[in-house]
Automatic annotation (TrEMBL):
This is Adenylate kinase. The keyword Chloroplast does not apply. SUPFAM superfamilies: Microbial and mitochondrial ADK, insert 'zinc finger' domain (SSF57774), P-loop containing nucleoside triphosphate hydrolases (SSF52540). Pathway: Purine metabolism; AMP biosynthesis via salvage pathway; AMP from ADP: step 1/1. AMP binds at T34, R39, E59, L60, V61, G84, Y85, P86, R87, Q91, R150, R161. Monomer. Consists of three domains, a large central CORE domain and two small peripheral domains, NMPbind and LID, which undergo movements during catalysis. The LID domain closes over the site of phosphoryl transfer upon ATP binding. Assembling and dissambling the active center during each catalytic cycle provides an effective means to prevent ATP hydrolysis. InterPro entries: Adenyl_kin_sub, Adenylat/UMP-CMP_kin, Adenylat_kinase_CS, ADK_active_lid_dom_sf, P-loop_NTPase. Gene3D superfamilies: P-loop containing nucleotide triphosphate hydrolases. It catalyses: AMP + ATP = 2 ADP. PROSITE patterns: ADENYLATE_KINASE (PS00113).
């Protein structure tokens, strides 16, 4: 059986990054995440300006910049989980020309919970590991002391990111539903419960392939 080609969609804070780690560990596929790639190249000069200028406002970085990141990553991938891409119809149509997908999973989470998760998220700059001020802080004091908040996790920017999601990304749900690829998972459960449901959905898709 070939390695799965998985797309995770869902609003900011739905748990795409958290669940992608499980997918990578379990299936050994590539994690293709435009968010991480852009954060690592925030100050790269492009003909549209620097990614930072869009990200700090919660806006989408122009399509040609992200399309280029994804197409390069797909070339090397034997199976993948796409996280954070596509984010609008034009990216979805571009992706359609580049590769087939085995399954698209929507992680469904209510808006209040998303705001709590994102504004409370803290990142270890040394490992990239995510924590949360209320329910998931590291035991190691040195790690606790170096945690940082992402620039776009402040309350104002989170509100803008959620609006950008509703306007640009939500239409993709219907796009993938029409293609018979979409599975919805309740992302409001604990991370382990979400992973349980997600793994079953991936196994079902592999069995059908
Ligand atoms: P990106 O990095 O992709 O951010 P995002 O989609 O907004 O996603 P997040 O990383 O914030 O959330 P997540 O769903 O991965 O949640 P996580 O697992 O971390 O994009 C950032 C920016 O880059 C964009 O705004 C845009 O400017 C630009 N960009 C990126 N891709 C682009 C594209 N294709 N086109 C144009 N521009 C693009 O979880 C969040 C928190 O919740 C964590 O603290 C975690 O511990 C906690 N948590 C996770 N699961 C659970 C659970 N089940 N229960 C309780 N807590 C949980």
């Amino acid at each position: 059986m070939s390695n799965p080609r998985i797309l995770l969609i869902g609003p900011p804070g739905a748990g795409k990054g958290t669940q992608s780690k499980h997918i990578v560990e379990t299936y050994g596929v590539e994690h293709i995440t435009t968010g991480d790639a852009l954060r690592a190249n925030k100050d790269m000069e492009t003909e549209f300006g620097k990614p930072r200028e869009f990200m700090e406002k919660g806006e989408l970085v122009p399509d040609p910049v992200v399309n280029e990141i994804v197409v390069a990553a797909l070339e090397d991938a034997d199976g993948f989980v796409l996280d954070g891409y596509p984010r609008n119809m034009s990216q979805a149509e571009y992706l359609d020309e580049q590769t087939d997908l085995d399954i698209v999973v929507l992680l469904d989470v209510g808006r209040d919970e998303l705001v709590t998760r994102l504004t409370g998220r803290r990142v270890d700059p040394e490992t990239g590991e995510n924590y949360h001020v209320e329910y998931d802080m590291p035991d190691d004091e040195a790690v606790r002391d170096r945690l940082e908040q992402r620039d776009d996790d402040t309350e104002d920017v989170v509100t803008d990111r959620l609006d950008v999601y509703s306007e640009n990304t939500e239409p993709l749900v219907e796009f993938y539903e029409d293609r018979g690829l979409l599975t919805r998972i309740d992302g409001d459960q604990t991370p382990d419960e979400v992973w349980h449901d997600l793994r079953l959905a991936i196994e079902d898709a592999q069995a059908d392939a």
